[in-house]
Amino acid sequence: MEELEKQVSPTRKRLVGNWAAVSKHWHKFFEPILWHTLSIRPFVSRSNFDGFSENVSGHRRKMVHKILLHVDLNIYTHGDRSVAESEYTKVENNSRFSAALHALFRHLSTWAVEPPRPAITLELSASSPRDELYHSPPRYHGRLRNLQPHGYSPYGAKLRLLGNLLNTDWVSFCDDPYFELPKVNVISELFVTQRLYRSLSEKALSDILKGLPCLSHINYEPWLAIPLRFQNEREEANTSLFRNLGANVRAVTLWEAQSWELHGLMCYSKMIWLWPPTNGKLAKQAAQASFTLRHLAISHAIDATEFFTGFVAKALQTQSKPFLQHLALTYPIQYGNVNLTQIYDMLKVAAHAASYMGMLQILEIWSPGRGQGFFFRCEVAKYAIKITVAATFRVSEIEEVLEAWQLALRWYTRRKIQYVRKTIDPRVLTEPESICKYLKLYKSLREW
């Protein structure tokens, strides 16, 4: 049976069901595997909500560890694949998404929290079935297939692929603009990953978070807008994520997904190309929210300098102590234009912020790029503090930065501070996120 268990995958659930029916002994062994992950795909006849509560009841509920909800959006034609979504399609998609969310939350709201109760992860995703047909699978990068018939617009195809932000439209669904999702207490983790291109609106994020009051971990990976003039509404959505964190949330991951194929020169350079520039509201909100978190990772969405500045301002205004243990942030460096003075200024501000982080274990700041990269790490161990600076370019005259960090960590009176400088071979950084593999918090940056 152990050998059969190794063959189990989400696409072979029916096979597991057959094994569970062989005997009572096999049933006892395979039933927890069968119910470990529930995959729900509304608007597909074999995977709707009909009979959901009846089938997933009793002892089976205690076997559920993960629920995957995928919403099939409106199907577009071959001719429409390089044209942005129409207003009708936008309304239809929002209506489908809202109906699916309500149905799932309505069922899950009846589940009681009965110890011992495993932590249940909810993963949300949505796409048109045509996305997979006309575009390559979104694995790490949004590489579009080279299918360009007459009239095909690569720019239009990008707009279609990323689509509009998914919104909760309760008026079209139940004719009640003040409708709220039923409260679900059994979900402790929420994942919205970049494997599919649709991102959530400010209202949708707010509605979902309010309906999940017992969340402890959030992983959100929205895509950078195309064109950048549409980025503001995504900035507002990302800001609402931190504004609406529940009291139980202890870990947040925000990874702003992007790719060279989709975004070109704007890829990982939002802070340089965005106009008008971001006003820092997202960074400020994240800094304020971080005081109640233990783990925080924000990649590409903000400038680390803005976060640390907001963190210091918050620390000076409040008597509360931050609980942060792990912190990972990105700092954009324009390719071929390394400004060491700006990098060092950022690291000094980071040191000032770290002086208020009495529970800090690991802080990492990194810069993405092909053939160019940088990271800084402060690691607080039991008997020593290790500061690491690594880059593809020459790092010199960093003494003032080290002095700032020695001053920031002065409360660790009996711990020796060790400084390590490393050189990274530019040839190994073949992808913008290749440098992530050098980080101690690598697995916390996103769902790899």
Summary keywords:
12 strands; 33% helix; alpha/beta; globular; 2 domains; 448 residues; F-box domain-containing protein; DUF6546; twelve-stranded mixed sheet
Structural features, described:
- The protein is α/β, with parallel strands linked by helices and 448 residues long.
- It folds into two domains: 36-267, Leucine-rich repeat, LRR (right-handed beta-alpha superhelix), CATH 3.80.10; 322-448, no CATH class.
- The protein is 33% helix and 16% strand.
- It is built from 16 helices and twelve strands.
- The protein has helices at 2-5, 13-20, 24-35, 52-55, 87-108, 129-134, 154-162, 170-174, 202-210, 231-243, 260-263, 270-273, 281-289, 304-317, 340-354, 399-408; strands at 37-40, 66-72, 120-127, 187-192, 217-220, 251-255, 295-299, 326-330, 362-367, 374-380, 384-391, 416-423.
- It has a twelve-stranded mixed beta sheet with strand order 1-2-3-4-5-6-7-8-9-10-11-12.
- Helix 2 packs antiparallel against helix 3 and helix 9 packs parallel to helix 10 (231-243).
- It holds the Pfam family DUF6546.
- It comes from Colletotrichum asianum.
- This is F-box domain-containing protein.
- Residues 247-442 form the DUF6546 domain.
Structural domains: how many: 2
So how many helices? 16
- Broad structural category: alpha/beta
The arrangement of helices and strands along the chain is: HHHEHEHEHHHEHEHEHHHEHEHEEEHE
> How many strand segments?
12
Strand numbers in spatial order across the main sheet = 1-2-3-4-5-6-7-8-9-10-11-12
* CATH fold-level assignment of the largest domain: Leucine-rich repeat, LRR (right-handed beta-alpha superhelix)
Our estimate of the beta-strand percent is 15-25%
CATH class of the largest domain: Alpha Beta
Major β-sheet profile: 12 strands, mixed
Helix content: 25-40%
Spans of at least 5 consecutive residues whose pLDDT stays below 50 are: 137-147
Tell me the distance between the termini. 29 Å
User: CATH architecture of the largest domain, please?
Assistant: Alpha-Beta Horseshoe
Shape: globular
Provide the gyration radius in Å.
24 Å
